Amino acid sequence: MAQDRKHNVEDLHLVDLTKKFGEVAAVDDLTLTIPAGSFFALLGASGCGKTTTLRMVAGLEDPTSGRISIGEKDITSLRAFQRPVNTVFQSYALFPHLDIFENVAFGLRRRKVKNVEPAVNAMLELVELSAMARRKPTQLSGGQQQRVAVARALINEPDVLLLDEPLGALDLKLRRQMQIELKRIQTEVGTTFVHVTHDQEEAMTMADTIAVMNAGRIEQLGDPASIYELPRTVFVANFLGQSNLFAGTRVSTDANMIEVMANGTKFLVPTERNAASGDEIIIGVRPEKITVLDFPDREKVPTGHNTLEGRVVDVSYAGVSTQYLITLPWGQNITVFEQNVVVGDRCNVGDQVVVHWSPEHTFGLAGGETLLVSTAQALAAGV
Ligand SMILES: Nc1ncnc2c1ncn2[C@@H]1O[C@H](COP(=O)(O)OP(=O)(O)OP(=O)(O)O)[C@@H](O)[C@H]1O
Ligand SMILES: [Mg+2]
Predict the structure, then answer these.
(1) In the CATH hierarchy, which fold is given to the domain comprising 234-380?
(2) Gap from CA of 27 to ligand 1 centroid (Å)
């Protein structure tokens, strides 16, 4: 069954999709291709339009404009039940009076399928709940109920499974287990999963491709590692993991490297890692890419590295890593994560230090207004 499905599924296309509620565009001219058979995450802060996007794909909400198609087939005006799409919501919405077997069988019974047993049993096996077939939903844990909801949707063999914060109600440990479980199920069946979440770690661990959404639009799209390593906007740099950002001005450019002055300090960023077209450039670096040295060791900084001096104002030991907060001469703080592989002394609060990182780990973002607007948005979103 899984094999058949893999052959049949085609890409999901959203083209110029817009949804307005009054004057507000909840989804704003969204164009996106979701590759067939991929695990795709829509990641964004509360209110950015994730659920509205899913509801339009599911046929539960009419777009104000734009098109939705699967392969060549335009499904924009199809009714919800006519679409090869199923949805799993955060509230599992299982039928409380039916046992697990009948919950999973529901879609087949409604389509008057005669012998439901083999398909239902296969689904229960897929989600590892065969032993619980005769229990009622209330007799299952949250994670088990969520797996029933997934089985109940997948038994209809949709081309696309939409998951709207499906793990939101689970505690952290169960959430991590279910992330692995859902990923396994997706790999086994090969159905296209579109998974909505505002949890960046969840999106990174599960998805083949992430679309970072902000105010109804896609800010950046790509595989988790490339978005993390090379964010293209301030919003993405702050929303997906943490970043240290310095607003500066271009002083020179050659084929390989751009020189940027920020707060009287010169930074190098590879030309190909710079997303800014103008001369206002925000320099960025992830906290784990930075090395901290005691001030007397400053001659150990490799030639050509971006280098700053500062004073340690906070040290927090977090098991696998130590997190430093370091104040720079112009009052800005930077965050550094150091892996705890070194035996012996760490830096202490009050120490004068030198921090450095390779230009290869530096990224350049468009400067100017964006820094303020996007930072405010990120703060409003609680990230
Ligand atoms: N039926 C509606 N009527 C009016 N405005 C709506 C309606 N549904 C959603 N909105 C607005 O559209 C915007 C996007 O909402 P949506 O539910 O898509 O966000 P979301 O990204 O799913 O957020 P969350 O992470 O909180 O679930 C919000 O500003 C919301 O208030
Ligand atoms: Mg939502």
Answers:
(1) OB fold (Dihydrolipoamide Acetyltransferase, E2P) (2.40.50)
(2) 9
